[in-house]
Known about the structure:
The chain is mostly helical and 310 residues long. The protein is built from eleven helices and five strands; from the N terminus they run E-E-E-H-H-E-H-H-H-E-H-H-H-H-H-H. It has a single domain (11-288), classed as Rhodopsin 7-helix transmembrane proteins (Rhopdopsin 7-helix transmembrane proteins, Up-down Bundle), CATH 1.20.1070.10. It has helices spanning 24-51, 58-87, 94-127, 132-135, 138-164, 181-187, 193-226, 231-239, 242-265, 268-292, 295-305, and strands at 2-3, 7-8, 11-14, 91-93, 173-174. Helix 2 packs across helix 10 (268-292) and helix 9 (242-265) packs antiparallel against helix 10 (268-292). The radius of gyration is 21 Å and the shape is globular.
Amino acid sequence: MELGNDTHISKFLLLGFSEEPALRPLIFGLFLSMYLITVFGNLLILLAISSDSHLHTPMYFFLANLSFVDICFTSTTVPKMLLNAQTQSKVINYAGCISQMYFFLLCAELDDFLLSAMAYDRFVAICHPLHYTVIMNPQLCGLLVLVSWIISVTNSLLQTLMVLQLSFCTDMEIPHFFCELNQMIQLACSDTFLNDMMMYFATVLLGGAPLAGVLYSYSKIVSSICGISSAQGKYRAFSTCASHLSVVSLFYCTGLGVYLSSAATQSSHSSATASVMYTVVSPMLNPFIYSLRNRDIKRALKRIVGVPVT
């Protein structure tokens, strides 16, 4: 594939985590376990929601979409890393690298928007309970998910097309376990000013706007809960959003930790290790958070496995 006028590139090398041969089986087993747990856990959430009519509500509609995106999120990066570890190869072809970068951006942005939509759902449920069914109607829920997909697909496609215009030099080593946008831009030997500006603009706008929505929603939720007189009422109101708050905190804190650690250490390997938290660990823990703290999900899962529901 030809890039620019004189640059021919067909593959990149994903350096991964460690050069130590003794650690490769451990890393392979660890990531295989986390991947299987992630896929199996999120599939159970999807099955529980689809099979139980009591869970056909806006909150669980967004949760089902989040579980689907989380499966795609980890499937974008982990299987290739496992294949490279098994075959002792670090190679990823150019088309595969570009495709991986595109789908990684897409899933990360969808996660961001879906968590924001879920925060709005909890805001309406707690702050405007009498109007909840009117406001959070199926049309609005579908529209929120559709808009999330449109914005995410558009931005991911635009970022990817801009990377396709770059020329790459002889250094084809990516110090990561997947093709990340920032790493790809750093490898380019052509002018990356527009790419950098677009990346920073998208991060601030598409990352900051949903986060601002989450913070605003929870500021109103906390204010509303503090206005409840009884302790039991406060606990009941808080319990309806505790799971989502845990997932939001996990996603944003781990994502923020990646960039803080990479900025502090200037080490690509440290950044790769830190990014595992939001690319693998966060999607893996989400089903546990929702199933362990949610009676409705636990009841639906018991019905699936045939356990008597009390």
